[in-house]
């Protein structure tokens, strides 16, 4: 069970809407980065105190983007909530960092949750951060547990105003955030896919290493983890595409449809990978079973050659006073010949049986 | 088959709506706890007799919460049913404690059934209690088989009027009850998850203990049991979210949506756990199979070394009068050398075959 | 393939609606039992001839229930069909006793098919009878292949007019019939469940008896059989709940919903049982595989102890003229010591390898 | 891949609607059988030339049924197409005999495709023919690859006018054709079911014959084949039941519903059979595995008895000058007793271990 | 992970709609082939420069078909996009050649993506190209990664104006393109099917070659690959059939329905093949397991015959001074007889046990 869930159960008994940060603290101090822009310009400011949030004055006609790294300060969150009129449940969900991706419609704004993943080489597992996006008519708020570099390129694009991106408003900004997230998933799915193909190559060439099974098991779990994040994200995008609540303009919806297609693509890739891994499990188990087969066969061959010969040696080692061949000068070679002949016949007989059955 | 179901079949032939308590008696005397409150105050009373129920006078504008522990007294139940205008089928369902979670809409009130679980360390199984909730316009009735402590924190919150909870009416109370139930599930799912992860760690490190299979089997059944309770509860919440019958106000529906999200989360966690356990079963079976493999290999090696050597010993133990080497002073060492050489060659040959196949 | 289906294929080529009884004859003579009742009284009569049916006069305002045991007399059926205006296809379906549960709406009446099961200890299988129920505005017809005792308690209740049941009309009667059927299923599902739990207990305690697999297989088939009957019955009830054709009054629909819930409950119990049996199959196969494992290990141990010792004995049995130790007075004990030492070392080595791999 | 599909790929590149017969030619010359009837009479004629089709005059008020055996003459087909106003795609589908069952609505007529099966004892597989049915307002056209005898009984019924079948028009005729087809399926499903039950009986009695696996595999494929034909046929019937295009009158729809029920029944039977076969596979594999188990055990017993005894014999065969017991007159029997004692003790020990693990 | 996806992740961070060709360059220079036609004639031209595209003048009333091979020149693509008013996202999707089949509706035109496959004998895998089709009111644009010969026959048909195909407009052209694609799939599915049947034949005849498992695994992956392309194509066709946006006239929709049926057929064939391969896996694993069984049995037989005989030989090789039979002139033959008798008895006993269990 993950660390997050442990914390959740500790919260049982608190009233709903109580602001307690449930989750690991992953960054030292919360950082608030404010961007405000329109076609004419872009204003950038780093906020650090509750007062600055309370005193925030909006530039008319501008799109505002407030990004928060680090969720451990409930007071700060409450101040933001108050300034932008967020529902207590939204704040609660932002702070409880084990939400599954979803979209909630609160008339004045949309609340979106998505998840970010990092491959942790040490534990060979995927670590997960929660990203909360709030889309209002002319503002976007984003909340992350720590800086991840996901939105850096987007920020650069806004500063440079490439393709006149600053002209396009809050809904396009929200789309761009989602697009950045989904692009990140592609890299992860590729990575899992590369590992799976290395496994496949090594298995098809019939050299099952020990640990293959554990490896398949681990990859399957990673796929499950990613699928659990992407599947509801697809649903979120589907809801956004079909809804008519005016948060997204028709022209932005075309772009959302594109991100939606990407999520479908990702899910299919993950399903293919899962099928591949299941197939590899079959191949592996069969290879192991073939091994046992080869070894049992070796054992059979060994026993088949040596048991009769050993018997013959034993027979001529008996101490009867009267025994055939013993006094014959070539008796020894007679016995050796007999051993060889029997071994040859039995081997031939078994080879033939193997062909039959 | 559980004890409850046994009792159900004994009821076959009775007319519908007949009040017979089907289920274990889990508490000595029924306890009735009455809470009535509005923004101004909270009145608390413990009822003990049928007459007190019949004579119950409502305080106007107040929200009433009547909680019943222990269902073994049909007369008492009938009195409550009469006082609050409950349909005979509702009373029957309250008393038959093997209902699956559901919601029934009876115009004047909603009838909700949910299930509570306790982990019984002794039998390593989950024991289940039924919780019935009846939500009217300004009252909530709850029926439990025994005190479980689930609603204690909520009762405290009402008494302390934290966040002005007393102002929020019967629908918010019903929501809070459901929220308490779902929070309890998180603890159980965590516990199963912890056990599963211990199993995983021990299996991945390749030390399958005996009893692993029984353990996986038991955990799978616990997951099935929890899933059977949470899945229909999710449906119940979904129905409440989508219905427009006026029992829940728009602002409470936001909170219900939150509980709904939690149940979805729980179900996904259970599915992940089931996938994990199925994967562990594969890992376990493969580990066992690898074991057999190792032992067959050991047997092959032993046979390969000793059978030819034993044959050579037997050959030189034969009693032929004329045999080579016997009279040579180093004959014994010739034979020993031959044994060693053959063993070495055969081992080498088998090692090479192992590399090939 | 069941006996019923054999008969069905014999009917190929006959025109639709032709009245041929397809099914085993399970009772000697058809019995027709007529009950007519209202709040004031109940009239009971046993009909025996075609003429009595033709001449049947309805008491105005009364609810009529005609129950038929034994379907082998097509003329009698045709008479009933004519008297109550049944469609030829209905009569055909009543006589072909391998229908799956369904409801057909024929404007003037509903035609319901359900199935009854009996556990036949002899063949350890479930035998199945067809029950046809026709619900008109003020009459109910029931057709069974033989007396089964399922509706006896209901008949008693009508005679005694408990809970004023006679006041409640034909739709309540139809509900009561369905309720009796579903109650019967509970007993069967319990029985299968009991057997499954006995199997589980014996397997978890690690003593797989021979025949366990056959037993699991048989139980799985029984579950499939029951599921095939209950699943469509649930659909039938669902259709009745959602339809607005006026055969069921609003107050009876509440009761139908109750039976519907019971069928959902039954299906879930069957699915749990199927999961349980599948899990037991895994446990069983693994127990068998563990057995092989133990025996291969025993074989390895035996070979490991004795093969080197036998070789040493053989070596000192060789007839070389010059051999070490032979003439030493303690030579024999040297050899014995060598055997023991090698056996000890190899055992130790294998035990260590077993711990490693 | 079947012969039909091979032919289809040869058609790649031709324009759509081009009339090429794709499929084996299964009959020597096409036969066209014309029936025209109303309540008053029935006129029957065999057509043989293109001109006869072009010159066909309809009797007003009559229902026309034209049945074609053999599809290898595209000109003839084109003539029929022209005479009855068929769309080029319909003709193409009639001639490409690997269609899956479907219904296409072409305003003036419905085009139905179904499949007929024959069990070919030689290859133990199911051979499949395509049956095309075109239902117009007052005519029915049927196209088959060869005479199959499926519609013979129906033709007889029309000639005899049993149950005044001639009065019932083209839609009832189309229904009767579908009914005949479905009745045929029952026979096939029964046959597969009989084979499966023979397999089951032989397996449950624990005598797995070689070839059982191949047999299970073959039956599974037959079931898949049948399911592939019946499943879409059910969909076709469902579409006909729900459509309101006026080809079927309300009274015929009742009969169609009956055929629909039969297809549902068939599909369930096939699913049961598939479950049964999957279960049998488990039973078979387990029986085989039990066998290996028994034989490994036998091997263990043999080794356990003889290895120690052989060692003792070897020990007393050593040539040490000083050895205990050798000169004792009962030394031989001491040794024999020792062998027997050790064998007994080891056997006992192993039996006990077997009981433990 | 495929080459395409690798490239996609390199694109992360670029703004949406940026024209970068993601995919292998599969042809040297882009080729643009222009066809314009109406009932009266057909004009054909090869375009090679950006200027020719910019200066393109439409012949009124004509249908235009512009086919592009090779996507590596973004400028050219941008010029086409500008000339025909394509959305930046369409151009992006055309250039990113790992799209899954889909249809996007952009008011003025439809954008369709499909995939082409080639079997690469070298790697025994399927290579995939992307085909983009844009259908406007009177024009069709097609974009392929390289010449594949798929549309050659169609081009010939247009030039020859067979069946007056030139009269039928842009929607019929788009249909014809899709039809050509689907016909190509049939050939591929056949090929996979042929391989699967060869595998089946060889397995049913009980000669499992090494590498069978790898072969099954490879075929399963090919089937998955094809399914991933055909399944969404079916959805695309379904959308086109159900949409009412006027791109397809009613008469062309009939033809589309035909292609739709073909895709359904293909999917079913693939599912059958997958079932077949899964079944073959079972057969193969069981054959391998039978092998082990046969060899263990052989080992048992060998051990059973020789162990007792070797013991007897050892016994009479002991050096006791007093031993029975040794001095008897036929003692040797007594011993041999004893060996033979015991071998016979044990063999008989084991044969009987085999019959029992």
From TrEMBL, chains A, B, C, D, E:
CDD domains: TmCorA-like_1 (cd12828)
Mode of membrane association: Multi-pass membrane protein
Xref: Gene3D superfamilies: CorA soluble domain-like, Magnesium transport protein CorA, transmembrane region
UniProt KW keywords: Cell membrane, Ion transport, Magnesium, Membrane, Transmembrane, Transmembrane helix, Transport
Primary localisation category: membrane
Domain of life: Bacteria
A GO cellular-component term linked to this record: plasma membrane
GO molecular function terms listed in the Swiss-Prot or TrEMBL record: cobalt ion binding; cobalt ion transmembrane transporter activity; magnesium ion binding; magnesium ion transmembrane transporter activity
Subcellular location: Cell membrane; Membrane
Transmembrane segments: 298-320, 332-351
Keyword Transmembrane: yes
Pfam families noted in UniProt: CorA (PF01544)
Physiological role: Mediates influx of magnesium ions.
Stated family: Belongs to the CorA metal ion transporter (MIT) (TC 1.A.35) family.
Protein known as: Magnesium transport protein CorA
Provenance organism: Azospira oryzae (strain ATCC BAA-33 / DSM 13638 / PS) (Dechlorosoma suillum)
Gene name of this polypeptide: corA
